[in-house]
Write a structure and sequence with these properties.
Length: 400
Amino acid sequence: MPIPRTATTFFPPVMEARRWLDGVTFSADRPLINVSQAAPVDPPPEPLRQAIADAALNTPEAHLYGPVLGLPDLREEVARQWSDAYGGQITAANVGITSGCNQAFCAMIATLCAEGDEVILPTPWYFNHKMWLDMVGVASVPLPAGPGLLPDPDQAAALITDRTRAIALVTPNNPGGVEYPADLVRAFFDLARARGIALIVDETYRDFDARTGAPHDLFTDPDWHDTLIQLYSFSKAFRLTGHRVGAMVAAPERLAQAEKFLDTVTICPNQLGQIAALWGMRNLAQWLAGERAEILDRRAAIEDNMPRLAAKGWALKGCGAYFAYMQHPFAISSDELARKLVPEAGVLLLPGTMFTPESDPAGGRHLRVAFANVDRAGIGQLFDRLSVLDWPLAPAGTSA
């Protein structure tokens, strides 16, 4: 008897990790350091909250159904700012607003794939991408990252079959933190175009890229929309996680197909969230620049503290956006290690096994630290706790 689609994939990793806290207590002088989730816990800045409140009180249509593909003004603003940022031609007809970036990915997969098709995912992968592909009967084809956690286009080319429909990249990467070089992104674009498949580029963390200027030049191609699908989230930029507002940039014909999916699932994106995103885009550029500077300082704090762990056999494999991806030195798998860290070190983080296929031994050697809610001082405390761990080490030469 066939099993339900939800039974074909794993349980949500962040929720699973939270259950590790059940029955564990933390003292006031040694509180839990939670680096498990890449979502800001602080509320939006007060002026943005006021804009939301004003809309809730004074804009009656904010409480009604809106356009399935989002508010026209927000689509126009995304198109205008993206055209300026990337140096390309993007119109409102290329932009769809979604209930978060995860929904944008789901909608795009619905337009691309039939059951039994394939999508290439670099590993370590973003687990929600893998979960959705499982639930719609699409095979996730792992593309193991190479040095610097960068995927190789030549290796990807060897994985393409007549059932491949897309390659999905996340840059800056979750979970690895690495920023894919522009020429690497271009190489994947050229490969996808040559083989007649889509390139999905999830840029949820684009606002926290350490580089200045456009992170790639794909939108400068006048025919970018024949291959490229870009995804984005307003959650991280403006702390709107609970409002669920994301975006997808693609060919109008593809958005027309995505509209069928969106109308069936949510009918329209959250109206107050869209109003907040638009207000933020128009008014919070300077504030967002400050947020970026703070995240970059936390990234620097990770790198500054890393020599303490390196002396104990740890290795920093990637760092950027909200994430540090580390190789640990211990003789146990990362899933066991992550559970052990909760009661014994007061640290909650995610194991690499949550970002890799079960058959990939690299998952057991790595941990993800999400530092969006831990400042420089907190990062120092995190490294204090990790640096004193005195557990059996893996045999010399064990690496991945």
